Amino acid sequence: AMMALRQVCQLRLTAVLAARRHVTICAGIESTFDDSAVGIVTSDGEVLADCRRTQDHSKTGGTVPNVAGALHRSCLPDLFEQALTEAKLRPENLDAIACAIGPGLAPCLGAGLEVSKGLAQYYSLPFVGVNHMEAHALTGLLCDPTAQLPALTLLASGGHCLLLVVHGPGHIWRLGTCLDDAPGEVYDKVARELQVSGPQQLEAMAKQGNPSNYRFGNMLSKQRSCDFSFSGLKTKVLRAAQDTSSPEDVVAGFQQAVLDHLLTRCERAILFCQQQGLTLAGFSAAGGVLSNTVIRSQLQHLAQVRGLACTFPPPRLCVDNGVMIAWAGLKHYEQGTCTLRGNLDHVRFFPRWPLGIDMSDRVQAENIPVNLRELRRKLSADACG
Question: What is the distance between the terminal CA atoms of the chain, rounded to a whole angstrom?
């Protein structure tokens, strides 16, 4: 009976593999910070496996890089086996293995690279080194097969805030980046100061408050760039939170300031592309900050007003994951870029790895004005109409 069951399972596996013979299959390994993850995707956008393990560093008061690296090294092989089981595949059924080799914490990157190189060499598979931020930027193409390029892409989370134009894998313009604290980090600090559970509770508080009672201003309003700055806002909000009798008003003002900052930068980016003669086809946004429904809906509204198709990956794919690494690796493998075979001893990781071509100086040189009051009026009028 056991032998018959094995034969049935093997036949089913063979049938599944036969149906997929025309697609490329790639595994992706993510270990840039404190999330260990392995994903497997196909070239037609099917997610075959999405396995994750989040480390607990609560006892040390934060992530300890060397400890995180050791934990990655110990659990990634098991996650790889788990992903294969979930996908009903064997290692030899993979076409390539991708790994995030930067940016990130050096011990964590080293652990992921060590494991992925070992797997690629043991199973004689091509190895694809992936930029972690590019993987985030390409996720929209996985979520929406109809998405068109080039696309304006905003990445906003606890670790970064980038405004990009994605032309394709390996071809990205970087219009702006965060000059200091990332927005998600500020959200977390405000939540701690107010002793609430996190950003979702902050959003609920903002609905009960009046943003007009705390006008924190639009950051970098005198710089006609697409760069971001949240450090000054953090200081103002934390000071206000300590002295207020209406924390809901403080949070509402804080949320409005973040939204205004993101909107003005995205609007300037759209105008910059128009001045460069570049016709954008879409708008995409990802990162934990986009879980805020007000920010999300207003960015969608801006895209709609500007005639851009909008793609927002689901929250599960906005945080660090192996699926996005597999997808980015697959795209590079298909076009023959960032792909290595054979001896991988020379492959290195990059704790600092700026993404794409830096266009920030060109944006600033264009000196493009964006009137926040007019922008708000335009979005409001369109909503009413």
Answer: 68
